[in-house]
Amino acid sequence: MKNTTAVLALSAFFLFAACKKTETVAATEKAENKPSGEMVVDSVKISDSTKITDSIKVAFMAKLLVFPSLKDKKLLDSIYFQEKNIKDFSKQGLQAYLEKEKQNYFSSVKNDSKDWASDITYAQNWYSSSHMNLISNTNGYMHIQYTGSGYEGGAHDNYGFSERVFDLKNNKKLELKDITSMPAGKIGDILMKNVNKINSGTTDAEGEVKNSEMLLVDKIPATNNFYFDQDRLYFHYSPYEIAAFAAGDITIPVSWEELKGTLNTEFKERMKIK
């Protein structure tokens, strides 16, 4: 039986959707913060399921955001970094892309499992899901969270996250060096110190956070999965990335005070950090 691992590629993320017919939805969303010009964002969704044997049902669900006002191809390619060969970034083009991805997924699962799927005699629901969610758009910094989960047999589902912040003023993905000049090793030391500050679900008998007891690494690397708010920088780690699956995903905060003296001048001014 195949047990998929959690990867941060939208085409490999899975979530069950018990729908017999394909459902297409066009939605309109607004960024939570309005100072950046009330950028309107559309989204396209698809949800479908099929049976590959009498016992195995497979579902596919996906959501992509659509940005009618963004025209820079390099920026759009970065936003859709997990998708391959998208040439049409319109709502219609992205909807057609999802339909093709759904068909490819169903065909792939059917072909990959044809030699052994018939041996499974008890009901199973396999699934694939990927979602792009607009979290914020503040001072020209747009934060998108990419989520996905999946199951194709095995002990449990797998899931993962990818956090990306885009600098709409400069038409690029924001890198950690655009925020701070602090060496990665020193950031790692802060991450180790702060690993228990946000509850991931791992606690002791007294209810104290114990993420550190589930770590699989001696040093926590400064991941590219970061985002920020007015007060802090956050590093987000998916299951197995730094800790056992039982720890879930872990988010570690780093305050601006801890990065004092290393913040990029433009970033500091745009975020109004004192």
Task: Please explain how this structure is put together.
The chain has 274 residues and is of the alpha+beta class. It has helices at residues 73-79, 91-113, 184-194, 265-270; strands spanning 23-30, 40-51, 56-66, 124-138, 141-151, 158-167, 172-173, 226-228, 232-237, 250-255. Strands 1-2-3-4-5-6-7 form a seven-stranded mixed sheet. A hairpin with a 4-residue loop joins β2 and β3. The radius of gyration is 20 Å and the shape is flat. The model is unreliable at 1-36 (pLDDT under 50).
Q: Keywords, please?
A:
274 residues, 4 helices, disordered N terminus, alpha+beta, three-stranded antiparallel beta sheet
Write the layout of secondary structure elements.
Elements: E1 23-30, E2 40-51, E3 56-66, H1 73-79, H2 91-113, E4 124-138, E5 141-151, E6 158-167, E7 172-173, H3 184-194, E8 226-228, E9 232-237, E10 250-255, H4 265-270
Parallel strand pairs: 3-4
Antiparallel strand pairs: 1-2, 2-3, 4-5, 5-6, 6-7, 8-9, 9-10
Compute the number of helices: 4
Q: What is the helix content?
A: 10-25%
Order of helices and strands: EEEHHEEEEHEEEH
Q: What do the pLDDT scores average to?
A: 84
Q: How would you characterize the largest beta sheet?
A: 7 strands, mixed
Overall outline: flat
Judged by helices, strands and strand pairing, the structural class is: alpha+beta
In whole angstroms, how far apart are the ends? 55 Å
Number of strands: 10
Whole-angstrom Rg: 20 Å
- As laid out across the biggest beta sheet, the strand order is 1-2-3-4-5-6-7
Which residues form runs of ≥5 with pLDDT under 50?
1-36
Strand content: 25-35%
